[in-house]
Design goal:
alpha+beta; about 325 residues; 7 helices; about 30% strand; 6-stranded mixed beta sheet; 7-stranded mixed beta sheet
């Protein structure tokens, strides 16, 4: 498997390098509560809050050389794309009297901020897959906005879409994403610490639900981030998986979509170069189905192992992550 470029780092790498221990602690907490952050690589933008990248859409032609004959000139086909970043922000409010009553106001504030950080995590995960700047211009475009029209042409992005066979609007998707600086990576604005910032806004007065004033400690969290798919061949969408067919038919068989077959098809969509670090993403319903399949037949290439006290699923050596941001209400994609 190819190694990652040296310019791409995880959010945990940023946490270890930052001189601000408070921000490092928050980033570690974000990492621990979001499996995607264990995988996604981050790169600074090359144009302020935007990232301009040249995406190859076709290979150059080559020729066999004969003596005394020339060779036709050729060049690769590319397309210049500007990827945008969005600003995700949250404010936490902690009652001053309650925080100080516990003896360690700073520690109490941090414990209360967990819910806000979890909300930011969920929103980031959702935007990574469903972000649409046409309807919400303040966000960035996610994977689903790119892999939306199937194609049999292997030079088009729609070629990397696999049909799960479902119809209607009770579908979900499985994503195979190879993270790396030459494949797909997260973005943060130029000259910023992975786009994440935390500010202690001190004590502020707010009205309670009865219109009465009360003092609160306020913390501002800001996360400036985006997504770049530099080489679409290293990302595959398995769509049209009808979750209503995920039924357990008994202790020795599993009745439902051929999930493993679909995952093999996705793996075969990737080019031979196999750049980046591949990871499968699916919601808990699909992951549960996979666990049931592995329980019925341990000869499969699906493994569930315990690492640091947590069950880790992998398929053919590729991690399988749970991502509850992936919905069960996707409308079926037509055009296959």
């Amino acid at each position: 498997m190819a190694t990652l470029g040296t310019n791409a780092v995880t959010l945990m790498d940023v946490a270890r390098r930052t001189i601000d221990k408070k921000i490092a602690t928050v980033i570690e907490l974000l990492h621990d509560t979001n499996e995607i952050l264990q995988d996604i690589m981050w790169m600074p933008c090359n144009d302020g809050d935007n990232h301009v990248v040249s995406i190859r859409t076709g290979l150059p032609s080559v020729s066999w050389k004969r003596f005394n004959y020339g060779v036709a000139q050729s060049k690769s086909q590319t397309q210049t794309v500007k990827e945008a970043t969005g600003m995700l922000r949250a404010y936490s409010k902690v009652d001053v009297d309650l925080a100080e009553k516990n003896g360690n106001a700073a520690q109490f504030r941090a414990s209360e901020d967990v819910a806000f950080l979890e909300a930011m995590n969920q929103e980031l995960s959702s935007t990574l897959f469903y972000g649409n700047t046409n309807t919400t211009p303040e966000k960035f475009n996610g994977f689903s906005m790119r892999y939306v029209t199937p194609s049999t042409d292997n030079t088009k992005i729609g070629y990397n879409m696999v049909n799960g066979g479902g119809s209607g609007s009770t579908n979900t998707s499985i994503w195979l994403v190879a993270w790396g600086d030459q494949t797909a990576f997260g973005l943060y604005p130029e000259s910023e610490r992975a786009g994440f910032d935390m500010k202690d806004m001190g004590v502020q007065m707010f009205e309670d639900s009865n219109g009465l004033l009360n003092k609160y400690y306020v913390t501002e969290y800001t996360w400036r981030c985006g997504l770049c798919v530099k080489d679409w061949r290293h990302v595959v969408r398995i769509c049209n998986i009808d979750v209503s067919t995920l039924t357990d038919a008994g202790e020795s068989t599993f009745d439902g979509p051929a999930i493993l077959h679909l995952m093999i098809k996705a793996l075969r969509k990737r080019p031979a170069s196999l750049l980046g670090r591949p990871v499968f993403y699916m919601n808990n319903d699909i992951l549960t189905a996979l666990d049931l399949i592995s329980n019925f037949d341990n000869r499969l290439s699906l493994k569930v192992e315990e690492v640091d006290g947590k069950p880790i699923t992998s398929f053919r050596g590729i991690p399988v992550r749970r991502c509850d941001a992936l919905l069960n209400t996707e409308s079926a994609v037509s055009g296959f």
